[in-house]
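User: Can you help me understand a structure? I only have the sequence.
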Amino acid sequence: MDAELQQKYMQLQTMDAQLKQLEQQLQQISMQLQELLLIKDSLIELPKSKDSPEILVPLGNGIFAKSNLKDKEEVVVNVGSNIAVKKKFPDALDMMTKQIEEFRNVEGEIMAEMQRLSLNAKVLEQELTAKMKK
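Assistant: Let's start by predicting it. Here is the structure, written out as tokens:
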């Protein structure tokens, strides 16, 4: 195998590794996006409920306890660095909507990069195949 052919083959392997990494990132983003959409739905529906609805409160690692929602005006939101602040439901909903939009933008960027890499890999693969036939 000549040097040029070997270099192109290494480029193709690098592109393949990058594609796999982007696929993993896309899968993580999609999972986080689904979680954000569920939270958004809850923020929409909970204030509409009568009395104090029964909810499941996560205790950690898939363990939940039944509880009743006492305050339908505010939620406590983790804003980072283990700092939590009270927010009105509409403000928390706006925050979730912005996060969802950001995640969708990132999802779109990853998909565009995957498409670009895929196309480049296909062209490189065709070049390799043509050179190997010579």
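Now, to help you interpret it: The chain has a mean pLDDT of 91. Residues 3-133 form a domain with the Helix Hairpins fold (CATH 1.10.287.370). Let me know which part you'd like to focus on.
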